[in-house]
Amino acid sequence: MKKALSLPYIWKTILATLFVAGFISFFFSANANTPFEPKRTQHALPEQTKHLEPSATSSEPTAKEWQELVVKIRKNGSLGAALDRLKISPATTHAINKLKNSHYLTNVRSGDQLTVWVDKHHQLQKILYPKSQTLSHELIKTENGYRILEKKKPIDIRTETASGIINGSFYIAAKKAGLSARSIMNLSDVFAWDVDFSRELQSGDTFKVIYETKYLDGKYIGDGNILAAQITSNNQKQTHQAFIVRDNDKVIGYYDEKGRNLKKAFLRSPVDYVRITSKYNPKRFHPVLKRTRPHRGVDYGGPKGTPIRATGDGKVIFRGWGKGYGRYVKIKHAGKYTTLYAHFSKFGKFKKGQHVKQGDIIGYMGKTGMVTGVHLHYEFRVKNKHVDPLKVKFPDAQPLAKKYRAEFKTTSTFLLSQLKRLDGRTHVARNFE
Ligand SMILES: [Zn+2]
Asked: How many whole angstroms from 356 Cα to the centroid of ligand 1?
């Protein structure tokens, strides 16, 4: 299937613009494997003193007599300075510094907030240092002196399903089915190489998704990974399926029922917002040279400075100036493929000889060389012969590694049976088992 747009980026931008304000969950979980960022208080909290109410966290019988103090780390501050402001003796701070795992407490960042408990003699009893929603470091006093502990709250992962039928906009149908903006983005990312979401999804097309949601203390905190999905396109003429492969927590990729990678070795386009201004044409009349000269690439229009991405993994084999090309970059990819990107206003950070990953920014759109206006000229060569980048059939990215195949067979078979049970017409079917 052909696809002229690089959708992951388009979707990301459109959806982020629409939903950035409301979707804290998206913020928290840009990557399911990233630990949650600590929630930081923006305003300056006054140092305060209050009496500790007996609570579940203070089981100690004497805890009722403790005082709870809250202290915030100042700019370039330290634990010692913070404790000093609470009038806790330097000897105590010194003792903390010598403890095992002292860095749990001493690696502080300005703005972090610590809760400190002291007894009636103003002796330090306990410190609570929350590092994130799920992780906190604590100092407690035991019979044998202070100890530093790490406490992790487990995130409860649940599996949910959503399905729907498109009536006009896929985005609206997906929202109606209960999918978050983040999961909608993930879904378009998963199928980005196969489905042009803006042009190929029509009214009547259906989608089914099995995905993870995350809960902390029983509260929904965001969506996790998509485990499996099925989508029809072109008025149900085509059906696309995706199944996740993970290695522990790391997502290896998405594969179809036969274990083929959904990702292709090349992006269809090196720029996010695509406006093709000149196509591949062996008999083009050149606007500057005023004579017939083949156009062996595709031109993309856009504002000066638009980031240009390497369409595939590879190695930069040229970065410099060419009379016609202006500032340009040439990349050699695995096998027989090379790509060329020209007329940059400036280069990205990758130099000649360095490796680039698919999607890495290698330069910015400009009008250097023999051109009439700002654009990117993009060439794709197979065995050093030019081909039309919009028509060439891209090779699949790496197939599923052997070591995952047996497990993939089991999980994808199971997930497929679950997908089949979902009716594209029911909006939300929760309580997935
Ligand atoms: Zn061109």
From this structure: 23
Q: How far is the CA of 262 from the centre of ligand 1 (A)?
A: 29
Tokens 């903390």 correspond to 96
Check: CB of residue 287 under 8 Å from CB of residue 327: no
From 152, 174, 197, the end of a domain falls on: 152
Which residue is associated with the tokens 């930069």?
316
Q: Are residues 116 and 191 in the same domain?
A: no
Reported as a single tens digit per residue, the pLDDT across 259-289 is 999 998 998 889 876 677 788 887 777 777 7
Position 37 pLDDT exceeds 60: no
- pTM comes to 0.63
Report H helices in 2-88. 7-19, 24-28, 79-85
Q: Per residue in 240-249, pLDDT tens?
A: 999 999 998 8
Nearest to 189 by CA among 258, 244, 250: 244
In this structure, the answer to whether residues 218 and 126 fall within a common structural domain is: no
CB neighbour list of residue 237: distance below 8 Å, 6 or more residues apart? none
Range of the domain at 93: 48-152
Q: Which CA distances in Å does 329 have to 160, 309, 322, 375?
A: 45, 11, 10, 14
Residue 119 pLDDT grade (very low, low, confident, very high; cuts 50, 70, 90): very high
Those residues whose C-beta lies under 8 Å from the C-beta of residue 93, and which sit 6 or more positions away, are 79, 80, 83, 84
- Provide the pairing of β-strand 361-365 with 375-382: unpaired
What's the gap in Å between 381 CA and the centre of ligand 1? Answer: 14
Q: Both 145 and 175 in a single domain?
A: no
Q: Supply the CATH number for residue 241's domain.
A: 3.10.450.350
Question: Could you give the number of structural domains in the chain?
Answer: 3
Ligand 1 centroid to Cα of residue 401, in Å, is 38
Cα torsion 291, 293, 299, 302 to 10°: value is -20
On whether residue 408 sits in a domain, the answer given is no
DSSP 169: -
Looking at the fold, whether 340 and 364 belong to one and the same domain comes out as yes
